[in-house]
Design goal:
The chain is mainly beta. It has a single domain, classed as Jelly Rolls, CATH 2.60.120. 7% of the residues lie in helices and 31% in strands. The chain has one helix at 2-19, and strands at 24-25, 36-38, 51-53, 69-72, 80-81, 96-98, 120-124, 133-136, 140-141, 147-154, 163-169, 179-180, 187-188, 195-200, 208-215, 222-231, 242-248, 254-259. Strands 2, 4, 8, 9, 11, 12, 13 and 15 form an eight-stranded antiparallel β-sheet that branches. Strands 3, 6, 7, 10, 14 and 16 form a six-stranded antiparallel β-sheet that branches. It has a two-stranded antiparallel sheet with strand order 1-5. A hairpin with a 5-residue loop joins β17 and β18 (254-259). The longest helix has 18 residues, at 2-19. It is globular. The structure holds calcium ion (CA) (2 copies). One calcium ion binds at residues 72, 74, 76, 92-94, 126, 131, 133.
Length: 269
């Protein structure tokens, strides 16, 4: 009797361990949707300083999350994660807001943890074709000392490292208008840990631009992006209080940012 109990316990541990291996897996997604654009809106005035988007404020597993714009240019179904379920798994998509602590079961392995908080932007590999997926920022006015930085990681290297490029557009957020600034060859995201990437944007000072991360993975698994930040110098040619940022998010997540360039205290009633 004692031996049987031990055996059952061993089998349970084995089953749990199997659910944590997290191979990729295909799923049934129905008819393909082709190229898909999602877009959003953020603020009336461009940032006056750098602000980090850590993807914490967007709903779990959404594949639309304004103010980001995403383009699924390959339109292919995506791989999912074996033994794990979450909304929008397998669907054709570009990027999604991924929260490993909210999957069923929760994913606790170190390799899937966000760089910050509970969430990151995720691009799952297309099943049967090369990814062509864009994650595009809101429009940002660049002044001086401008740069963009973000953290990247491949979930695993089981199927090869994930690949990406970085682009900038001074016209609109359509992928065809982006100029690649990350070099001739694609970059690869390491699986061993998060990597900080930074790109000089000073060539675009004086312009309002969009920054895009293009996932060009080939039959891999999952590209992870977190803590995206555009930095540029504060606006200096004004002398009065102004609304520097207006944020309209989901539900009651709305905010105004007032910037006071003077040395005088302001009272807001
Ligand atoms: Ca795609
Ligand atoms: Ca985060």
């Amino acid at each position: 009797m004692k031996i049987s109990i031990i055996l059952v316990a061993f089998l349970m541990i084995g089953s749990y361990a199997k659910s944590q291996t997290f191979n990729r897996v295909s799923g049934n997604v129905g008819p393909l949707l082709g190229m898909k654009q999602t877009t959003g809106y953020m603020h009336a005035n461009p940032d006056t300083k750098g602000s980090v988007d850590s993807f914490e404020t967007y709903p779990d597993f959404n594949i639309t999350f304004p103010p980001w714009t995403t383009f699924d240019m390959d339109g292919g179904p995506t791989f999912g994660i074996e033994g794990v379920s979450f909304p929008n798994q397998f669907l054709p998509k570009a990027f999604m807001v991924f929260n490993p602590s909210a999957t069923t079961p929760p994913m606790t392995s170190e390799s899937i943890q966000p760089h910050s908080g509970n969430k990151f932007a995720a691009c799952f590999a297309s099943n049967g074709m090369v990814n062509n997926d864009w994650l595009i920022s809101q429009q940002v006015e660049l002044r001086t000392n401008s740069s963009v930085s973000f953290w990247v990681k491949s979930y695993l290297d089981l199927y090869g490292l994930d690949r990406y490029r970085v682009g900038i557009s001074a016209t609109n957020s359509l992928p065809s208008n982006f100029t690649i600034i990350s070099g001739t060859n694609y970059l690869t995201a390491p699986a061993t840990g998060w990597e900080l990437k930074m790109f000089d944007l000073n060539e675009y000072n004086g312009q309002s631009v969009y920054i895009g991360i293009q996932c060009v993975s080939d039959n891999s698994f999952l590209l992870m992006v977190d803590d995206f930040e555009v930095v540029t110098s504060p606006q200096t040619n004004c002398s009065d209080l102004f609304i520097s940022e207006y944020v309209e998010g989901w539900f009651n997540n709305k905010a105004l940012e007032l910037y006071n360039p003077t040395s005088v205290m302001s009272t807001i009633i």
